[in-house]
Amino acid sequence: MQASQRISGILGGGSDGWDVFNKAREMIAAGTRVTELTIGEHDIRTAAPILQDMHRAAMGGHTGYASVPGVAALRQEVARRVQDRTGVPTAPENVLITPGGQAALFSAHVATCNAGDTALYLDPFYATYPGTIRGASAKPVCIQTRAEDAFQPRASDIAAQAKGAKSLLINSPNNPTGVVYSRATLEGIAQVCREHDLWLISDEVYDTQVWEGAHISPRALEGMAERTLVVGSMSKSHAMTGSRVGWIVGPRDVISDLINLATHTTYGVPGFIQDAALFALQQGESFEEEIAAPFKRRRDIAHRVLAGQNAVTLVPAQGAMYLMLDIRNTGMSGEDFAFALLEAHQIAVMPGESFGRAAAGHVRVAMTIEDSAFEAALKVLCVFAQNRQSPA
């Protein structure tokens, strides 16, 4: 017996991009000490007051089936938060609570694409994007951005692929590049979506991690609220990665259909976890700033370290918890560089190629270890690159 093509074909016949990460974990399991700068996992854990509220809710009995669309108070709080930040009128009926942002991404593509429809996404991309689209039985088509544009997508490139497509997935602040899309970039994207009747799926899970410029939700742009689905999550903003709480914000009729999907798939999110998410959101922006502060601080450390050398170039680090480093001066691919760095110095970074072809010759560094260790690892990486720099 064989599994369905939908399942067996999720990776599209290629690597899932996690080879360096998996090698690092094998080394750790064998007893080698590895400095991990790979995945977007906070070096702090979920704050004790949030866990205490989760415990209170569980002990208080909120352990049965919870409302599938989400606990009413949490939907209301997400709606308030989105409306306050974007200026777009948002009601609880515009919100579906999901088991994390990943489930929201999958659901959004199920909602917007029929089997075989073309779903566009941008390269570089978060590693699960193409597989998520295939899992929804759509056809993933990537549009390359350019290093010389600091990975800001060009509307003309999107328009060239837009004919016949049903959706476009974007992510700002961006993983893996750390770039925040400018208003001009987003206006161009919105124009293409309107002209080609595209759904826009906007992954905004890093909206609290903006170091330069401002986060603009494309749902707030003219004519976009009725064709945009926004994906949000508690994972990055509140260090609740393992709690699996996310949401989709969109038109009421689509949210209503997505509630039907949730009823027949996940059947919602545990009530005591939703209660803890509500408590966390109610702590306000100051708490979110506290969670984000280490990454802003480490981004400043990176600027100081990288200023003293010429082998590694930093892609503008405007948001999120990552740095994208251009190591093309070494003459190495991102994958070769990452494997060699791991072997020589037991420092694990992600190859740019793990996120698509546009970031070839780059590596992504997650700013997810303590400051002094982060600075030391980045200095070693720079010296390693300097020693392998191609002759002029």
UniProtKB/TrEMBL annotation:
Catalytic activity annotation: L-aspartate + 2-oxoglutarate = oxaloacetate + L-glutamate
GO molecular-function annotation terms?
transaminase activity
Q: What is its EC number?
A: 2.6.1.-
Query: Cofactor(s) for this protein?
Result: pyridoxal 5'-phosphate
Read off the PANTHER family from this record: ASPARTATE AMINOTRANSFERASE
Family designation: Belongs to the class-I pyridoxal-phosphate-dependent aminotransferase family.
Q: What is this protein called?
A: Aminotransferase
Please report the organism this UniProt entry assigns to the protein.
Sulfitobacter pacificus
Q: What is this organism's lineage?
A: Bacteria, Pseudomonadati, Pseudomonadota, Alphaproteobacteria, Rhodobacterales
